[in-house]
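Input sequence (346 aa), recorded before submission:
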Amino acid sequence: MRVLMTGGCGFIGTAIADLMLRRGNQVLNIDKLTYAANPSALQGWMGSDRYRIVKGDICDMAKVLSVFEEFQPDCVIHAAAESSVDRSIDGAAQFLQTNFVGTYTMLEAARHWWAKRKGTYRFHHVSTDEVFGSLGPGDPGVREQTSYAPNSPYAASKAASDHLVRAWGQTYGLPVVTTHSTNSYGPWQFPEKLVPLMITKGAEGEALPLYGAGDNVRDWLHVADHAEAVRVVLEHGNTGETYNVGGSFEQPNVEIVRMICNELDEHMPENAPHERMICHVEDRVAHDWRYAVDTTKIWSDLRWRPEIEFRRGLSRTVDWYLQNRPWWQEIRRKRYRGERLGRKAA
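Predicted structure, token format:
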């Protein structure tokens, strides 16, 4: 299968691309290579005749159309997105451009290409649970038909892109599917996100800045399980449907940070207890309290469920970051110093 990936140098994109390549597919990866891109995560595939990166902006229609014509894909996995809630609070314009205009561009290019070819074809849109907004402590996990209620510029831009995907499926008959995932974690994640931020700061002996009281609740999913869910939906999901993808491991952020501290204590006992390094900082604007999804549909329809238990996955993730210090230390020097963003409206 010839897979056209967008954002295949991002954290989730590299995991999906690697999985598709390991299963024998051809992958062309179009990526703008912004601050969070990690081409080195797919270094092992460089030189393979089944993998290629094209540097390009998904908002550039001429560029995108030329990629379709050249590669002639059997499917599209659209994972490119600006994804930092904090950065969207500090500056929303790029989120609207990439997530909304970029998705429109990809849909239009995909539609024109699809009209020219015969046989099976699919456009898979990778989205987020944040489009559904915040839940209360006793609320059930959101279902696929739950009404949208985005609260951050990032979530609003992704909700808008979801609506475009649905509209292009309904209006033009483009064969689309969408997945909404909970928080992913694992190797190669840019160290502005909670798990790698706390690991890298703890490893450097720095304070661990936790928003507010740390009682915001998230569901956690290993990126390898996320990639497998995307593959299953791409290959076996019903056209026009959306599927929730979750790890079934809801925890307050402070508990996740404590688990990371316990792992660091084992690796670096000379600095134990790392939990004493937790410091509570000013909360970010409009911080959603809880996300959770109901994954009944993807299990009953496609028999997918996560395989990596969180504590095992977290332990492996901490090991990976400690063994790959040069990668994230270079990021800390050149691209991101470890500061927490989004605490004040721009």
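Checked by second reader. The chain has a mean pLDDT of 95.
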